[in-house]
Write a structure and sequence with these properties.
Elements (H helix, E strand, L loop, with lengths): L18 H11 L2 H7 L31 E3 L7 H17 L2 E5 L5 H15 L3 H4 L11 E4 L16 E8 L13 H25 L6 H4 L5 E9 L11 E4 L5 E6 L5 E5 L2 E4 L7 E4 L8 H4 L9 E3 L7 E9 L8 E2 L17 E2 H11 L13
Parallel strand pairs: 1-2
Antiparallel strand pairs: 2-10, 3-4, 4-5, 5-12, 6-11, 7-10, 7-12, 8-9, 8-11, 13-14
Helix pairs in contact: 3-6, 4-6
Length: 377
């Protein structure tokens, strides 16, 4: 592969660099970024090098200590007063950050650790074993790939990560279809996360002044996708990024990460480091593949932009669970919830189908802009 050192990106002779051929050569290996690192590369290949204006700078990150929301869910179903206090905190965090961390969420720490370990073991398998899952067909129930938007011409550079995606609800794969290293823990972890998702949707509904079942009745947790990300150690992390700035498009994203760090959220126009905390989950009202709370809440809840930095230390492992509607195309329209609208609060977004939103998001790719703008009235 053609490589570039330090800041030579702009000086590269573009005539000697056929980006599409380089992308295809990388993709055809089916070995992902991990395959490059395992081969012993000492410089970042050019397809991963961000133009200077896109590179994260240390000055981008706020040095002051923001107190980001940490919400303790203990006793949520035992005491009405405690329940109200937790609901208020969830509402406030969703309105001001679009992000919060939850502790005492009911998922044993051993289960969290096993889920991270199972994900790591999937990527540590022999390449010939992993190749059977490598595909760019995102309709499959198990998808191993590197950069779903790899060939998108609007993307300035590929991200330094590999991924494996599992469609776990409403029609999960049979156990035999799941990779052996994470088969049992994936099914067990999914059950726990589905229970947590139901509790969170109830809190979010109540925070909007709606019946506690309102969002679940809208099918906001009918579908569940689980994605494991693998960020190999990077020889030149200043030239690339783990995941570019974006906001997710599912109703809820529950994110589990290991202790390496690198996750940042954009708050008050400043990038904030989100340090790992043992035994916790990160919860984001974001916007990625389908719809999101900012649209259906008519900006009452916000979508947070976030990114993951590349690191010389690795691999970094994370597992995201995405709650959405079911995967089948539907003509059902999702727009700002009628009960939230008034003469003083008219709809700010047009209604859209899950398919339209998803198609637009995939076509746009992780180009650093929000898909929300496309649906704004």
């Amino acid at each position: 592969m053609v490589v570039s050192s330090t800041d030579d990106y702009q000086a590269t002779d573009q005539k000697s660099y056929d980006k599409m051929s380089e992308l295809k050569a990388f993709d055809d290996t089916k070995a992902g970024v991990k395959g490059l690192v395992d081969a012993g590369i000492t410089e970042v290949p050019q397809i991963f090098i961000l133009p200077p204006k896109y590179r994260p700078e240390s000055s981008d990150t706020c040095e002051s200590q923001f107190i980001f929301p940490v919400i303790d869910l203990e006793g949520i179903n035992e005491d009405p007063i405690k329940h109200k206090e937790i609901m208020d905190k969830v509402r406030d965090a969703s309105e001001t950050w679009g992000f919060f961390q939850v502790v005492n969420h009911g998922i044993p720490e051993s289960v969290l650790e096993e889920m991270l370990q199972g994900t790591r073991e999937f990527f540590d398998q022999d390449i010939e074993v992993k190749k059977q899952y490598y595909t760019r067909d995102l309709t499959k129930k198990v998808v191993h790939t590197s950069n779903y938007d790899l060939y998108n011409p609007s993307i300035p550079a590929a991200n330094w990560r590999d991924s494996v995606f599992f469609s776990m609800a409403p029609n999960p794969p049979s156990p035999e279809e799941l990779p052996k290293p994470c088969r049992e823990i994936l099914m067990y972890y999914t059950k726990h996360v589905m229970e947590l998702g139901r509790s969170l949707l109830e809190l979010l509904s109540e925070g909007l002044g709606l019946d506690r079942c309102h969002l679940e009745d809208m099918d906001c947790k009918e579908g569940l996708g689980v994605v494991g990300h693998y960020y190999p150690a990077c020889p030149q992390p200043e030239l690339t990024i783990g995941i570019s700035k974006h906001s997710d498009g599912h109703f809820i994203t529950v994110l589990l990460q290991d202790l390496i760090g690198g996750l940042q959220v954009l708050h008050q126009n400043q990038w904030i480091d989100i340090p790992p905390m043992p035994g916790s989950l990160y919860l984001n009202q974001l916007c990625l593949f389908l719809l999101h709370f900012q649209l259906i809440s008519n900006d009452k809840y916000i979508s947070v932009e976030h990114r993951v930095l590349a690191n010389k230390v690795g691999p970094r492992i994370s597992v995201g669970c995405f709650f959405s509607t079911g995967p089948s195309p539907s003509s059902k329209l999702y727009g700002p919830i009628a009960e939230l609208l008034s003469e003083d609060n008219p709809p700010k977004y047009r209604a859209t189908t899950v398919k339209e939103y998803g198609d637009y998001f995939r076509q746009k790719g992780l180009d650093g802009t929000s898909a929300l703008l496309h649906f704004k009235i």
